[in-house]
Known about the structure:
By secondary structure, the protein is of the alpha/beta class. It is built from eleven helices and 14 strands. Strand 13 and strand 14 form a beta hairpin.
Amino acid sequence: xxxxxxxxxxxxxxxxxxxxxxxxxxxxxxxxxxxxxxxxxxxxxxxxxxxxxxxxxxxxxxxxxxxxxxxxxxxxxxxxxxxxxxxxxxxxxxxxxxxxxxxxxxxxxxxxxxxxxxxxxxxxxxxxxxxxxxxxxxxxxxxxxxxxxxxxxxxxxxxxxxxxxxxxxxxxxxxxxxxxxxxxxxxxxxxxxxxxxxxxxxxxxxxxxxxxxxxxxxxxxxxxxxxxxxxxxxxxxxxxxxxxxxxxxxxxxxxxxxxxxxxxxxxxxxxxxxxxxxxxxxxxxxxxxxxxxxxxxxxxxxxxxxxxxxxxxxxxxxxxxxxxxxxxxxxxxxxxxxxxxxxxxxxxxxxxxxxxxxxxxxxxxxxxxxxxxxxxxxxxxxx
Length: 383
């Protein structure tokens, strides 16, 4: 009896153990499988920082001439590259110690490419470039270079020659007047080329020059233009940066040629044409060089009609069609190399030979001009 009872209890315990095991097994099967860990996503490549580019201007961007054109070139470059570049400018920076302070400040702001747009910044840019070898510098109209400094220029004398063709044709008195800025070879070259252009259509024409010894000084430019008109000039040309010469011609009932940018709006009745510089193509190329890693120092680019950096625009309706055709012929010749402005014989105004008959002056000669050609009265200051 006792054994039977013990066997019953053992059997009951065994059945309970099996039931418990079965219940545990069923519970395992019903548990949700753990969620798989998400695959790691690749990090998006970091966007390159934009190239910071700075421009230093001698005059105000609203001068209507030289600085206005350079700032338009900056804008054209910025439009081309979008958010790959950030550009800034400082205007009205004199050719003095202020230039060094401004350029050093632009370096401190993180600019890696800096353009200085006037001849008088040359020594300053050489000095600062030496102190910051990781910054690229470009100097307009200069001639000193370094591993991180190169120069660029526009063949403004080509535009001056084209302006001379128009002025020589349109003058009634045979006397032209020029308001000159600073007597450096660049400006002397432009004045001479203007006179050569005028003489190409009227060999007897005479040209007088009044120097103001400043790039942008509207009161002085006005005074000089007035003196030239009072002295008999009926068509004016300038190598200064404001529109004051054209405006003076408008007020005094004479004619004039705009310089560096289209100045037709400043004196519609006086305006014959405007000889313009177009810096945009060069600035776009230079910044592209820096972005692409191909920028090199110790270079010099001198662009003209051929490269689309110089033109004559807004030619007055009363300029004869034959003269307009001549302008087109000269431009075509400058583009394909079949025409040379400085081809001899060319004499200075003392009778000395500058360029021998049949010879074409090279760039070294043009960069060193210090005297007037035949047909221009007086002497270059300092010579």
